[in-house]
Design brief:
The protein has 96 residues and is α+β, with helices and mostly antiparallel strands. It has a single domain (3-93), classed as GMP Synthetase, Chain A, domain 3. Helix content is 39%, strand content 24%. It has four helices and three strands. Strand 2, helix 3 and strand 3 (79-87) form a beta-alpha-beta unit. The longest helix is centred in the first third of the chain and has 17 residues, at 3-19.
Amino acid sequence: MSDAGARRARIEAKLRERLAAAHVEVVDESHLHAGHAGAAGGAGHFRATVVSERFAGLSRVAAQRLVYDALADEMGAEIHALAIRALTPEQWRAGA
């Protein structure tokens, strides 16, 4: 597995574990940001879809905050930018 693939797998595993996520998909979009200041330091750009019951009743911002909290150790060093789609299982099934 490449370094980028290993980093993506670590992020997915932490999200599954820390948010009891039913579904996690992390896409490494670092290649789209080549030459960007954050990419120069080695941290990546990622897009994450996370499905968890823990988002039930939360605002979109509060759900995203939970994702950022789950990845606090990686923010800055491993992750420069993170786009988040946080859904409950009901929202996921409805195609939200």
